[in-house]
Design goal:
The complex is a heterodimer of chains A (156) and B (415). Chain A has 156 residues and is an alpha+beta fold. Helices cover 42% and strands 14% of the residues of chain A. A 3-stranded antiparallel beta sheet of chain A has the order 1-2-3, covered by helices on one side. The longest helix of chain A is centred in the C-terminal third of the chain and has 21 residues, at 122-142. Chain A is globular and about 45 Å long. The chains are: A alpha+beta (156), B alpha/beta (415). The structure holds pyridoxal-5'-phosphate. Pyridoxal-5'-phosphate binds at residues 95-97, 124, 126-127, 174, 178, 203, 205-206, 226, 228, 237, 369 of chain B.
Amino acid sequence: MDVTQMYQDIILDHYREKHHAGLREPFDAEVHHVNPSCGDELTLRVKADDGSVQDVSYEGDGCSISQASTSILADLVIGRSVEDTLALYDDFRTMMESGGVGTPDEDRLEDAIAFQGVAMFPGRVKCAMLAWSALRDALMRSGAVSNLGPDRSDDE
Amino acid sequence: MPERYDVEAIRADYPILSRMIGGYPLAYLDSANTAQRPKPVIDAVADFAFNHNANVARAMHTLGVEATAAYEGARAKVAGFIGAASPREVVFTKNASEALNLAANTLGASLKPGDEVVISVMEHHSNIVPWQMVCERAGAKLRWFDVTDDYHLDLAKAEAENLINEHTKVVSLAWVSNVLGTVNPVAEIAGQAQAVGAVMVVDGAQGVPQRPTDVATLGADMLAFTGHKLGAPTGVGVLWGRYALLESLPPFLGGGEMIEIVRMESSSYAAPPARFEAGTPPIMQAVGLGAAIDYMTGLGMDGIAAHEKELTSYALQRLGAIDGVRILGPQSYDDRGGAIAFTIDGVHPHDIMQMLDARGVAVRGGHHCARPLHERFGITASTRASIGVYTVEREIDQLADAVVWTRDFFAGKGR
Ligand SMILES: Cc1ncc(COP(=O)(O)O)c(C=O)c1O
């Protein structure tokens, strides 16, 4: 696969201009996740005390894939029910673990569909997952959901 | 004296270098991470496995004797390669990290509250974390050299802070930085350390593969390095120590072969180096290290150092001429190692690595196990190209072209 196809315009646009960036009040939980192999770092806050994700705010440093993934995540989940956010996490994760084959649901994943190409680069899947894993962790810590057990992406 | 350094002939010993990656010839510029292995090393390891494999020391049959001779032969080669007074000063470990942990734990055993250990901001995590751990355990204080804006150890600041003083028990520094390429004045600092009775530990993971090594000239009391950056297989490293020092230290790991007599109440320990080699050692890997040393010696360490300087200087020139590229580390190639870390404005090192890989260029992107050093320069990561004994100018050209392509792609141009 041509690497330039991994870097879809959507990804580069979000990388250059991140949506919902910055750390905001109020929040129910704050988490700090890192990708130790490459140094991507992300602090993510979530406000979710009425059954929906009212706000996601963040500050991060990392590659275009991890940064764009965070920006797109914020776009997708702010205003979404906590339950559906976790379901979306599962859908995103399934796509990222697919090795780039299959036809993920574009209506469901919206801009996040752009990461399908990234799934063909196993070394970069963690970058795309960083924000999603952080969000899942933050939702657990906020008490918005009960303990879901460890994230499978932490297994590796 | 070896003949002229013939890099094309050398490349013929490395079949992997003729691989194609994504339609481009491989330009392997990640030798500071791990070096490729020449055929004689692979052959030596295979010959050992096919014909001589047995455990060492404890196996007394013919194969055991042959394996022991091969393993101890490798120890003698290491000793010769670094100018050790005796092979008994050479301890085999699994890598440089374990060698540094061995140094930290054995030297750390006598640390007391109020004692100080000195490292630097430019260290690899392997030369930071073990010292943090032992200092915390002993209640000792960890201190460090800062790095100047021009990428050298800040000796003036150290002097002003009285960094090395009567409380200092250990100073542990990289000889050559794995990120900046900076060559540290190890002998000078060793003199200061020894003047206050401290032990000087040198992390030679990058230095030993790149330049002639003589532990006496280096001024070290201990020297750690790793086989796989020298063309040996992974799984073997070395801690060299002055014999009197090794003899004064307690064991690190307990187990077979490191003992003299074991009773249920307590045991007495073998003399070094066996004291520090608990359990079955990396025998085949050590044999590979011996072969790698023979290979490097055959090329000539002076020739290797000269080649590295020439290629590093060429790479600095090519990369330095590209708009938007910033080189982290001394810009002049006088007394500099072969690691060249750089950044490209607006492009994350991880993305750079991916783009270069797509053009066949293998580099490393990240913090290179030196997060504090990156933090010192206000960044979280960089891209690092590094030179090996087999690197040629056309690979540097391939790198430079791919860097320009990457920069333009992310700037929205070359699409
Ligand atoms: C300066 C330095 N020290 C220590 C190490 C650790 O070597 P190893 O991973 O083989 O233990 C490295 C290699 O990454 C290094 O470059």
